[in-house]
Design brief:
Layout (H helix, E strand, L loop, with lengths): L2 H11 L14 H15 L2 E7 L8 E6 L8 E3 L8 E10 L11 H8 E10 L11 H6 L4 E6 L15 E7 L2 E8 L6 H11 L12 E6 L4 E2 L5 E6 L5 E5 L2
Parallel strand pairs: 1-9, 3-12
Antiparallel strand pairs: 1-2, 4-5, 4-9, 4-10, 5-6, 7-8, 7-11, 11-12
Helix pairs in contact: 1-2
Length: 246
């Protein structure tokens, strides 16, 4: 049913025309079908994004291509991100198989199976006008994900609630964009990770050891000019860096 949409989104990723859908998706089943079709052609899943726009909104999820996860410091070419968007986030590296979703001690076992780390999510769109596209089409297009820049894993003891309220600093070419206390509109990063782990199932292969899950922005979605180097710091973690090449 959605074969043309999958083909057009893949073509846009390869430099072809951006896709302007002429029909609306019926619901999340359509979204998952398109995500799965695109991901099957792109290659292995290296991570996931999860988040919500507000505490009373449903969480969204989208896979991240393994080949577009680059450790800090990372460089992104113009062909890889037309919009040059970025968000500073808390992510979690999955170190071991996750516990069953119905396990009574699910949360404590989940915390032992992951390690937090800072990350830039790189943002782009394969849709002609993401400002007017429906939320379902944006989600079908991987919620505008273009890649991920993970930093060094957090060293030391931590608790799931440690990242609900953080100090976050974002600089662009040395200019401070934001600096201070930060929270996410969608709530706790660890709670979002847990929700994804419980709901993802075998979509695009499911969550697997070695993958990285990023959980939403502390600094909002911002766009930058070509040539900009970003530096992000979340208190208690090493700084990370990403450059949008000219």
């Amino acid at each position: 049913m959605h074969g043309e949409a999958i083909a057009r989104l893949l073509a846009a990723r390869k430099g072809g025309p951006l896709y302007a859908p002429d029909y609306e998706l019926a619901g999340l089943d359509d979204v998952w079908t398109i995500q799965s079709g695109v991901m099957a052609a792109l290659g292995p899943v290296g991570g996931w994004k999860v988040g919500r726009s507000a505490p009373d909104q449903p969480a969204i999820r989208a896979p991240i291509r393994a080949g577009m996860i680059r450790p800090s410091p990372a460089i992104w070419q113009p062909s890889e991100t037309r919009l040059r968007g970025a968000e500073l986030e808390i992510a979690f590296r999955i170190n071991a198989p996750l516990p069953p979703a119905d396990a009574p001690d699910f949360l404590s076992r989940l915390a032992k199976a992951v390690t937090p780390l800072p990350a830039f999510e790189v943002i782009d769109s394969r849709l002609g006008d993401p400002r007017t596209a429906s939320r379902l089409w944006i989600l079908a297009d991987f919620q505008m994900n273009a890649g991920l820049v993970p930093g060094a894993p957090f060293e030391g003891d931590w608790q799931p609630e440690d990242f609900d309220h953080v100090s976050a600093r974002l600089e662009a070419d040395g200019e401070v964009i934001c600096d201070g206390p930060a929270t996410m509109p969608g709530g706790s990063p660890f709670a979002l990770l847990a929700e994804l782990a419980r709901s993802c199932g075998d979509h695009c292969g499911g969550l697997q050891p070695g993958q990285i899950v990023t959980t939403g922005s502390f600094t909002g979605l911002r766009f930058f000019k070509a040539g900009t180097t970003l530096t992000g710091t979340i208190a208690g973690m090493a700084p990370i860096s990403a450059t949008f090449a000219v």
